[in-house]
Amino acid sequence: MSRATAQAPSNIAFVKYWGARDLKRALPYNPSISMTLANCVSRSTVEVLPDGAPDQVLLGGDSGELSLAPAAFADRVCQHLVTLRAETGTQGGFRVATKNSFPTGAGIASSASGFAALTLAVTAALGLDFSDEELSILARRSGSGSAARSLMGGYVELPTGIVASDGNSETASSEDSLSFSIQLADADHWDLRDVVAIVETGPKEISSLEGHKRSLTSPYYPRRQELLAQRLHVVRQAIAERSFSALGPVLEEEAIDLHLIAMSSRPPVFYWNPATLALLSTVRTLRDEGLPAYSTMDAGANVHVICEPEHEPEIARRLIAVRGVRRIIRDRVGTGPRLDVEPLF
């Protein structure tokens, strides 16, 4: 049987994907823009099994050992395998092994990198040749909108897929086929760094998927939608012009808004812990001292600090000294997925 291994990166969103018109297919209410990372990656090895064989999902350990994945994790992987079988016309089962280079389920977009790697590995194992746009759509259909952005390097936007036609929106089917990622700029365009302060290493209590479901109950959700057109414009222009002073305030506003919506949802979702607050205060202090740095967060307690290369060492030194920080990951803008990587089995 055929086998392939793919590595896909996580990404950090500057403008967030939070809330969806269709959660099953991760059709977003608003466009999102992210920076693809280089070091926070997921690796997935997939082997095609005979027709009718059951799917097998394994996790790779730090020492190279493989173990059965927990049921909840395996179920979500198997759901995506069902989707991929339907889209590729195959009947066989799959043996899947996956491993992350960073904490899983802790707000560092492990679903994005994981489902992007899985999608690439399955299509490669089947010997199928899909375009970047088609792979982006397949990865998004995992239920992780961020996975669509992890299929490309550099700076990436995921549009909504909504196209007006004679004053009306196209059908949901059309939206699904039009919501694929586009690259705004490649990794060589702008060398930005992401210093990730890890304060929680385990899976968060409330998943991102559940957070998406609750987001529409927040009274602030409609207001954020009103603000997004201008924010998207500023971020696109900041990337094009490599303007860190324009980018920073917007990405920080976006992170606060995501968590404001989470906290005001019904029932509310609280992702922060005391170390999160201490880190946000530290970043503000760094700026007061003349060190350009801006914080952002996905759905979790861990904090990403975006900066330019010359300031990365000092920012990392200051963040690791914050009480409650367990480790620092120093990352940067990355070039995207790879297929030339070592298999997990």
Name a few traits of the molecule:
345 residues; alpha+beta; Ribosomal Protein S5, domain 2; Alpha-Beta Plaits; 2 domains; 7-stranded mixed sheet; 4-stranded antiparallel sheet; 10 helices
> What overall form do the CA principal axes indicate?
globular
Instruction: Give the total of domains.
Output: 2
Q: Which CATH class of the largest domain?
A: Alpha Beta
Q: Briefly note the structural class of the backbone.
A: alpha+beta
- Work out the helicity level: 25-40%
Give average pLDDT, whole number.
Answer: 94
Uncertain segments are: 165-170
What is the topological layout?
Elements (H helix, E strand, L loop, with lengths): L2 E13 L4 E3 L4 E2 L3 E20 L4 E5 L5 E3 L2 H18 L3 E9 L9 H16 L6 H9 L4 H5 L5 E4 L5 E2 L2 E2 L2 H7 L3 E4 L7 E6 L9 H8 L5 H21 L2 H20 L10 H15 L5 E3 L6 E5 L4 H9 L6 E6 L13
Parallel strand pairs: 5-7
Antiparallel strand pairs: 1-4, 2-3, 4-7, 4-8, 5-6, 8-11, 9-10, 12-14, 12-15, 13-14
